[in-house]
Design a protein that fits this description.
The complex is a heterodimer of chains A (about 400) and B (about 210).
Chain A lengths: L11 H10 L7 E5 L11 E7 L2 E8 L7 H5 L8 H5 L6 H16 L5 H30 L2 H22 L8 E2 L2 E2 L7 H23 L3 H7 L7 H6 L5 H5 L6 H4 L20 H24 L18 H4 L3 H12 L4 E12 L2 E12 L4 E5 L1 H6 L2 H5 L6 H9 L3 H5 L1
Antiparallel strand pairs in A: 1-2, 2-3, 4-5, 6-7, 7-8
Chain B lengths: L2 H11 L8 E3 L2 E6 L4 H11 L4 E9 L7 E9 L4 E9 L5 E3 L8 H12 L2 E3 L29 E2 L9 E2 L18 H4 L7 H9 L2 H5 L1
Parallel strand pairs in B: 2-5, 6-7
Antiparallel strand pairs in B: 1-2, 3-4, 4-5, 8-9
């Protein structure tokens, strides 16, 4: 024990550096965080090595929600797997449905009609807003700003109402089919969605006023868990985390799918790469999503919403009940599955959490030979040890909140 | 540098270690010899601007020789291009070099491939199971692992340590096998009727022994 004047008072940056280099003396303590902890947003366990209140090392332990989705996919038809995609990133099920449908359509080499593409864009952007609202709400709640969570959930409720209107389910949507959609967008969806788009910016502005210049919030996030550009790319980070580190990479711009190339929107990027930047990127992405949805609703084309390939796309139910040919196609598509060609494709979509990719190996026939899900949360969570070293244990909740992962897709 | 230039450079540099690129749906796949993967990857990263390893997955081609494949999805942020590398790994020598030294993101991906397929990666800093628990005896994504699962013991550290059992399949899976167009073979093979299941539940075999 040294007396007080012998203890060196050093600033936190130096101390963080020393912690990284392992120069701090004394015994360390192992603390178990999770798997059931309010800020781990699911069942994530992190083993922390602490020196006092500072994190010396962190080991994320995942797999508590492992259900073997990839194994299940190999044992069912392409269409049967759609409900399982709802349960990947369960905060944005519509976006997962869409990514999966495009992946199988890429394998089959079919193109969906413009109306389908537009409806899918509306759904994907609604999912993005829904996910970011929860991400920001939960992050601020963990830090101590409880109010924001209630504000954002009020808006998420409206997105659930919209999802219910469009596909009958609020949470597990399963809205897409291979080569189209389960059903057309109902007529009263557009006015209801426009109404929502007038109300949402008010809430976003309120959240903005509550958080962005809030001294406590800024101090909890600014300079915390700085992720450099090179580290972000090296660790394969995608989505708001990569963009928060200043890399302008958005699959909607880089490899446009679903007709995103026809829409005007900006890709926000951060400058520092800390928790605050990741929060700011998500805030701006919601505003950009509103822009995209407005453009999609303004230019919503009419016509068919399913691709014409009858051997791949499920026919409409009412024609199945009245017409012979449709009945045959329905029977074959449901019992045998669509006869996808042999080959392998990788399709990735810009999901709210990052790049959701499907690597599909097909040997022909109704079921995949291998379906690998490239989950953004799985890859992004690898950053936890890098980001948390040298920070206080209370910063951990801010770091986890800013990574905005969901264990459903991390563990698959 | 375009993707064509990159693949051409790769072929001239590693003549006998890489195959010609194969195109399918606008994507290019190159097969790489197992012992050259680290050199090929580091060349692609440093010379061809493939800065990001997007994904790494194992594939089990049961019945083929070599049985396993490891697939790398590379992405170039500057050229906006995508390239897939494939490496074959034989069943009797299930080990290959790790690329964690080139992309740190490969760490968890390789752990997952080890966990799910049993493919070992040389020079990996921490090669242990990631989704299943330590000490789990099987590799679940192998084709010879049944969908229902196999009985296994839970880790001794678990509070309610016990065993896991095979899942009740209730007649499924209703699609069993890929690549066959014969619908008869795809029909559900054997399954108990609901009455038979009820019978089994109410009169399990164990009771007779007692």
């Amino acid at each position: 024990m040294g007396t007080l004047h012998e203890l060196e008072l050093i600033d936190s940056a130096t101390r963080a550096q020393q912690a990284v280099e392992g120069k701090l003396g004394g015994e360390t303590m192992i603390l178990n965080m999770g798997p059931s902890h309010p800020s781990t947003h699911g069942v994530l366990r992190i083993v922390l090595e602490l020196d006092g209140e500072e994190i010396v090392n962190a080991w994320p332990d995942i797999g508590y929600l492992h259900r073997g989705d990839e194994k299940i996919a190999e044992n069912m038809t392409w269409t049967q797997f759609i409900p399982y995609t709802d349960r990947l990133d369960y905060l944005a099920p519509l976006a997962n449905n869409i990514a999966y449908a495009y992946a199988v359509e890429k394998l089959c080499g079919i193109d969906v009609p413009p109306r389908c593409r537009h409806i899918r864009i509306v759904c994907a952007e609604l999912a993005r807003i829904s996910s970011h609202l929860l991400g920001i709400g939960a992050m601020s709640m963990d830090i101590g700003a409880l109010t924001v969570f209630l504000y954002t959930f009020k808006e998420r409720e409206k997105i659930y109402d919209l999802a219910e209107l469009i596909c009958g389910a609020r949470f597990t949507t399963s809205y897409t089919r291979i080569g189209g959609l389960a059903n057309d967008m109902p007529a009263d969806f557009i006015p209801m969605c426009r109404q929502f788009l007038t109300e949402l910016p008010v809430t976003i502005d309120e959240v903005d006023k509550l958080l962005t210049r809030n001294k406590i919030f800024v101090e909890r996030n600014r300079g915390i868990a700085v992720l450099s550009k090179d580290d972000a790319i090296d660790f394969g980070a995608t989505g708001p985390i990569l963009r928060g580190s200043g890399v302008e990479w958005d699959i909607r711009k880089a490899r446009p799918y679903s007709g995103y190339e026809n829409f005007q929107f900006d890709v926000p990027t951060g400058t520092v790469g800390d928790c605050m930047d990741r929060y700011l990127v998500r805030m701006e992405e919601m505003r950009q999503s509103i822009r995209i949805i407005q453009q999609a609703l303004d230019s919503m084309p009419g016509g068919e919403w399913n691709a014409p390939e009858a051997k791949i796309v499920l026919p409409e139910k009412k024609t199945v009940l009245t017409k012979m040919e449709e009945l045959i196609h329905h029977f074959i598509n449901v019992t045998e599955g669509i006869n996808a060609p042999a080959g392998e494709v990788y399709f990735s979509a810009e999901n709210p959490k990052g790049e959701l990719g499907f690597y599909i190996v097909s040997r022909g026939g109704g079921a995949p030979h291998r379906l690998k899900i490239r989950a953004p949360s799985f890859v992004n969570l690898q950053l936890v040890p890098l980001l948390s070293k040298g920070h206080m244990i209370s910063d951990m909740v801010a770091i986890l909140g800013s990574l905005d992962f969901v264990m459903g897709e991390c563990d698959r | 540098m375009t993707l064509q230039e990159a693949t051409a450079q790769l072929q001239t540099r590693f003549t006998d270690a890489v195959s010609a690129p194969v195109e399918f749906r606008g994507e290019f796949t190159m097969t790489v010899r197992r012992d050259a993967i680290v050199e090929v990857c580091s060349f692609l990263k440093t010379e061809c601007a493939f800065a990001m390893l997007v994904d790494l997955s194992g594939v089990d081609n049961y019945g083929d020789d070599p049985r396993y494949e490891v697939v790398y999805e590379l992405c170039s942020l500057t050229n906006r291009s995508h390239l897939r590398l494939k490496v074959s790994v034989p069943e009797d020598d299930l080990i290959m070099d790790s690329v964690t030294g080139i992309w740190r993101t490969a760490d968890w991906h390789e752990r997952e491939a080890f966990d799910m397929f049993g493919i070992r990666f040389r020079n990996h800093p921490n090669l242990k199971r990631i989704l299943m628990w330590d000490g789990y005896p099987y590799h679940p994504l192998r084709k010879d692992f049944p969908l229902a699962g196999l009985p296994a013991e839970l880790p001794a550290t678990a509070v309610d340590a016990g065993t896991v059992e095979a899942a009740p399949m209730l007649g499924g899976p209703f699609v069993s096998g890929t690549g066959s167009r014969n619908s008869v073979r795809r029909e559900p093979q054997q399954f108990d009727t609901m009455a038979e299941q009820q019978q089994k539940l109410t009169h399990p075999a164990k009771e007779e022994e007692v």
